[in-house]
Amino acid sequence: MPKEAKKEVIIAQELAKKQREISISEFFTKNRHLLGFDNPLRALLMTVKEAVDNSLDACNEAKILPDIHVELKKITEERFKVIVEDNGPGIVKEQIPRIFAKLLYGSKFHRLRMSRGQQGIGISASVLYSQLSTGKASVILSKIHPKKPAHYYELKIDTAKNEPLIVKDEIKDWSHKDHGTRIEIELDAKYQKGKQSVDEFLKQVAIVNPYVKITYITPENEKIEFPRVTNELPIEAKEIMPHPYGLELGTLIRMLAETSARSVQGLLTSEFSRIGSGTAKEMCEKAGLKPDQKPHSLTAEQAEKLFRSMQEVKVIAPPTDCLSPIGAELLEKGLRKEIPADFYVTTSRSPVVYRGFPFTIEVGIAYGGSLEKESQVKLMRFANRVPLLYQQGACAITEAVTGISWKPYGLNQSGSNIPTGPAAIVIHMASVWVPFTSEAKDAIAHYDEIIKEIKLALQECGRKLNAYINKHVRAQEQREKIDLFEKYIPELANALSNLTSDKKEVLEEKLKKLLKKELPTLEAENGAKEQSK
Amino acid sequence: MAQKNKASEKLKELGEGVVKDIEKGKNPSVEVPLRALSNVKFNTKSKTLELGDKFASRYFFNVAHAKKFLQTMEIASILKKELLDTDKHEHLRGVFYMTKRTIPGTNVNLVDDQTESDKILEDLEVITGLSREELHVSANKMGSLVGNIILEDGDDIIDCSKLGRGGYSVPSIVDELNIKKVNAKYILYMEKSAIFERLVEDKFWQKNEAILVTSQGQTTRGIRRLLQRLSEEKNLPIYVLTDFDCWGFYIYSVVKYGSIALAHASEKLTIPNVKFLGITADDIIKYDLKKHLIKLNEQDLARMKQVSEYDWFKDNKGWQRQIKMMKEFGAKAEIQALSAKGISFISDKYLPDKIKNKEFLD
Predict the structure, then answer these.
(1) How close B118 comes to chain A (CA, Å)?
(2) Is the CATH code 1.10.8.50 the one for domain A244-312?
(3) Is any Cβ of chain A less than 8 angstroms from the Cβ of B12?
(4) Cβ-nearest to A507 among B19, B59, B77
């Protein structure tokens, strides 16, 4: 090797020493906006949201009726403490540090199952944000059984290694609690009421989760109760294997490397949904592979060919029993308790599939009552029972709502804007994989299949809404008409009396009797057409 | 007085018809003859527009009709009680104000603007078969007359040759006028008061022994009736002077045959021997006025199509020729275009020549 070349190699080695893996924690500190921690208002909401999502998911899995306590303590104008306590199953001691103080740790990331948190970045991101903004550790207390002790942790994250830093690890007496978890996170934040507030978030959680009881202590020390209106827990969502149509090439390559199956055919039939041996063989043939080829032996090129052929071969839609919708009846109960109105209509559509992922759309509309008549309809978006409070304009749900002409359904609308009228609309997408537009999970991506289903659900409710408005408004109009004729009658009687010298009072009485008789034909178009003598 | 009793009696009959419906337990209604082109016929024999036999029934107990029904009865009762029975006259505007009020207990006005009460008055004319004048309602004075003619209005004697540039202001009801003395060869009726003023200044009527009449835009009923009386009683020829456009042509045809809106009054108001003097397409060519043409707009073209299809223009070769030429020009002309040939060209040359050569359109 020539001298010059040798020297270059050495430089490369030197450089390599300086290059190091950027830890995910560091990545977060630089890109907090991607996760929704870009402003103090939002940071507060995100922390409550992640904690509540976790509590509800845990209770669901353990089949416990959730009892959740949320408390916001104002420390200064710009610093708050978030306390969330549940009656869930608790967390075993060994898991606590990793769940709360390691990013991207969790059981949810690699599986296809309908759940609130999807990417598992949630609560640990709040712990990290707390640490970055206040320098404080987060406090976790968890208990798994009445006869077992409660574990108390104070945790931070080692941002370089993405590993938990245990500040305190103690056993505590939490005797009044059988089981559950309590977290306390202090962070730089801001509190406001309104559209994107913690208050609104909890109210919307209560609407789509009518089996949950939430007690909320606001920063002003006001206590708000969101009562439970059903003891019916949602049906447990089943986990499903991926369907070839929703697959990404990277996932396939990872599965080929990690699988314990000894052949490509074995991998396809055992780790995918709806692929039998015939279909598996067909996919292999199309990709120019032998079905008994070892999964680990595939080249990148072969993997890509296999990926293509998997999309081309016809495979039946995935099973849809993996979804746990709210149900029309419970959605109505939830709406009724949180949104006072005159009329409610809800629907829960049958599951369908986009890109191999089953999903179902549920819609509820509340109308009338104290809802604002002149302003835009209150739109509430949900994905897997989680309220979406940000990025309304970027969401497929909004596109579906504005893509409908609302006038035939009894609401006003200018152009293709959100309709106006005394109504609140709830739209829920339940899926094993909700396609969000970003990691902040604010808006659903625009898939035609999803938008179409939302529109169908909205139209179904819209028809019933219109029927109600028609009936209601017509009765009102009928009353107004009778009223008008009752005012016209003395005028006509007076004019006729002037013309003929008949007694005004007599004519009036007779006309009043006639009004009753003619009532059904007041609308008739009699005589409007031309006639000839 | 017999007239007034007759009108009052007719309105009473209208009311009695409605009361009869009420007594019978029927939905009260009135039959209103249609005043639209679909119900207007051109009688080729008498050369007048006549109302057909189509009518619409107006019901009280019908949401779409109720207010109009009430307006009809209310205005009928006002005409009878306030005008006919007390022998008073009122203008269209006055009738509107007598009717305009809010119906007690509602926010509904009996009439919202004058066009509503005007329409009802026209309805009442066709319902009763009486003219507006017979119902003691008059329109605004909008016309002038000048010339060697002496009129008698009650105790007043009016010499229309001694009224200066403005001339005599023609009232809307002229039946009670007495035409005492006329010294003229013909009547010139013009659409434009600007031309009237030009001719007066040029002493046209003195030099040519003519009577000049104008009404701004559409011809009022008072003018039409006066022209008709002068034609019938004094046997004076009448020549019409308008712009070269289809609106002008229609003004001529209204004086001659009657109008669509007032077809019911045709009998009284048509003057079949009226003739059109100008300005015509031939005049434009003859006097080289093409550079003063105004391009036809969409409205003009639409009106041209309508007018050319009216029965009384449809089969008239002379008129179809004029319309065809207008189409070829793609343009119309104002009569004032003649001023291009000299300010008094119209008085000194154009009119005397046309009348002398009998260049009329019929």
Answers:
(1) 18
(2) yes
(3) yes
(4) B19
Would an 8 Å CB–CB cutoff place B156 in contact with chain A? no
| CB spacing of A500 vs B59 below 8 angstroms | no
Q: Which of residues 470-499 of A touch B (CB under 8 A)?
A: 481, 484-485, 487-488, 490-492, 494-496, 498-499
Which residue, among B31, B219, B9, B41, has the nearest Cα to B123 in the 3D structure?
B31
By the CB < 8 Å criterion, does A176 face chain B? no
CATH number, domain B143-356:
3.40.1360.10
On the CB side of B43, how many CA atoms lie within 13 Å of its CA?
Answer: 18
The residue among B41, B55, B61 with the most chain A CBs within 10 A of its CB, best to mutate, is B61
pLDDT in tens, A8-62: 566 666 666 655 555 666 777 777 776 778 889 999 999 999 999 999 989 988 9
- Token pair for B210: 């003519």
Distance CA B78, CA A103 (A): 89
Provide CB contacts within 8 A for B132, sequence distance 6+: B121, B122, B125, B138, B139, B221
What sign for the dihedral angle of Cα A34, A40, A45, A50?
positive
May I ask the CATH architecture of the domain A328-459? 2-Layer Sandwich (3.30)
Distance CA A25, CA A104 (A): 10
On the CB side of A504, CA atoms within 13 Å amount to 10
**Cross-chain Cβ contact A529/B34 below 8 Å:** no
Q: How far apart are CA B275 and CA B45, in angstroms?
A: 18
β-strands A423-431, A378-383 pairing: parallel
Alpha carbon of B110: minimum distance to chain A alpha carbons (Å): 10
CB-CB contact of B32 with B58 (8 Å): yes
Give B2-138's CATH code, choosing from 1.10.357.10, 3.30.460.80, 1.10.10.10, 3.30.1050.10.
1.10.10.10
Smallest Cβ–Cβ distance between B61 and the set A496, A518, A529 belongs to A518
Domain ranges of chain B: 2-138, 143-356
CB contact under 8 A, A484 and B106: yes
Each residue's pLDDT tens digit, A203-218? 999 999 999 999 999 9
pLDDT tens series, chain A, 533 aa:
455 555 556 666 666 665 555 566 677 777 777 677 888 999 999 999 999 999 998 998 899 999 999 999 999 999 999 999 999 999 999 989 988 888 766 544 445 667 776 544 678 889 999 998 899 999 999 999 999 999 999 999 888 888 899 999 999 989 889 999 999 999 999 999 988 999 999 999 999 999 999 999 999 999 999 999 999 888 877 888 889 888 888 889 888 988 889 999 999 999 898 999 999 999 999 999 999 999 989 999 999 999 999 999 999 888 888 888 999 999 999 999 999 999 999 999 999 888 888 999 999 999 988 898 889 999 999 999 999 998 999 999 999 999 999 999 989 898 889 999 999 999 999 998 899 988 778 899 999 999 999 999 999 999 999 999 988 877 777 788 888 899 999 999 999 999 999 999 999 999 999 998 887 777 654 444 456 54
The Cα–Cα gap between B349 and A7 comes to 114
- Separation in Å, CA of A420 to nearest CA in chain B: 27
Q: Do B106 and A530 touch (CB under 8 A)?
A: no
Side-chain half-sphere exposure of A6, counting CA atoms within 13 A: 3
- pLDDT reported for residue B42: 82
Q: Is the pTM of this model over 0.80?
A: no
| CB distance A520 to A531 below 8 Å | no
Q: Where are the domains of chain A?
A: 25-226, 244-312, 328-459, 470-521
Q: What is the ipTM of this complex?
A: 0.72
- What is the second-level CATH architecture of the domain A25-226? 2-Layer Sandwich (3.30)
